[in-house]
Design goal:
8-stranded mixed sheet; about 270 residues; Metallo-depent_PP-like; Purple Acid Phosphatase, chain A, domain 2; 6-stranded mixed sheet; Metallophosphoesterase; YmdB-like; alpha/beta; 2',3'-cyclic-nucleotide 3'-phosphodiesterase activity
Length: about 270
């Protein structure tokens, strides 16, 4: 039995949460979506994910929340992540770190393994095991467990994401890039049957700098003073990709989505 998976782009601040609140449930019903995976590490003011926001997002219809280098920015998440298997830190953090990077679940009688990996480039504050070596191990383990693999790769360089996609082509059902928060134009089914995109965008303001007020971001570049970013509410949309996966674990379709949401600052 085939399944349909929605990978939502990074949820940025209250504006991003509003897009999920207003658009996700109708979209799930209309498109008959079986599983929703979302990057939530920017849900709390754009920097990290707090306990309350994580619970809200799960109640709004997200099944698995992933995060990257900002996973531990909110102190209450450091403790809470150990209690909730639906919130995934990067699997290649040190194994003694709070939380987990892999989630097994059953979707329409299909065993699914969601794997969250953080890239090794451009994250100087993290000390990670090799993303590529671990990804191969985890995908192979999922196959032994008779589960299809869905890999969320939170990385910066497009070349690193593409390399991961081609390495796992024919092994993982999907390799979905996150982090840059800009929907890329390279969604494709690779030769081996793996759905791939370099970045699945962001949920929140689209006329903004990564979901933040452009005036503040410009001023930071001019003055080099680390002023706190401010959430932006212009042109709200729920953004991500839909992936159809057949019984044999091969992806049969990948489609980018952008659902406009009306709203102003709450």
């Amino acid at each position: 039995m085939s399944i349909r998976v929605l990978f939502l782009g990074e949820i940025v601040g209250r504006a991003g949460i509003k897009t999920v609140k207003d658009a996700l449930r109708p979209l799930r019903q209309e498109r008959e979506i079986d599983l929703v995976i979302a990057n939530g590490e920017g849900a709390t003011s754009g920097f990290g994910l707090g306990r309350a926001h994580s619970m809200q997002l799960l109640k709004l219809g997200i099944d698995v929340i992933t995060g990257g280098e900002k996973m531990y920015y909110k102190l209450d998440m450091v403790e809470f992540i150990t209690k909730n298997p639906s919130i995934l830190r990067p699997a290649n953090y040190p194994q003694q770190n709070p939380g987990r990077g892999v989630r097994y679940l059953t979707v329409k009688d299909q065993k699914v393994c969601v794997i969250n990996i953080l890239g090794n480039a451009d994250f100087p504050r993290t000390h990670l095991s090799n993303a590529f070596s671990l990804a191969q191990i985890l995908v192979d383990k999922a196959k032994e467990d008779q589960a299809i693999s869905l890999v969320q790769f939170h990385a910066s360089p497009t070349a690193e994401k593409l390399s991961m996609g081609f390495m796992l082509d024919g092994k993982a059902s999907a390799v979905i890039g996150t982090h840059t928060k800009v929907l890329s134009a390279d969604a494709a089914i690779l030769k081996g049957g793996t759905a791939y995109i370099s970045d699945n965008g962001r949920c929140g303001s689209q006329l903004s700098v990564g979901g933040f007020d452009s005036k503040v971001e410009i001023e930071k570049y001019i003055t080099q003073i680390p002023t706190r970013s401010q959430e932006c509410w212009d042109d709200l949309a729920l953004v991500g990709v839909l992936v159809d996966i057949a019984d044999d674990g091969k992806a049969t379709a990948i489609e980018t989505i952008r659902i406009p949401v009306e709203g102003k600052e709450e």
